Amino acid sequence: MTAIGTFSNTSKVTLRDVLTQLEKEGVALGHFNVSDQVLLKAVVAAASETKLPVFVGASEGEREFFGVHQLAALVKSQREESGLPIFLNADHTHSLAKAVEAVKAGFDSVVADFSALPFAENVSRTKEAVEALKAINPSVIVEGEIGNIGTGSEIHDTVGNEFRTLSTPEEARQFVAATGIDVLAPAVGNMHGMLKSMVQGKEKKRLNIERIGEIKKAAGIFLTLHGGSGTDDADFRNAIAAGINIIHINTELRVAWRRSLEESLKRQPNEVVPYKVLPPVIDSVKQVVSSRLRLFHGEPAGQGAVGSVA
Ligand code: G3H
Ligand code: ZN
Question: Which site from 211, 274, 295, 304 is most exposed, i.e. has the minimal number of CB atoms within 10 Å?
Answer without folding.
Answer: 274
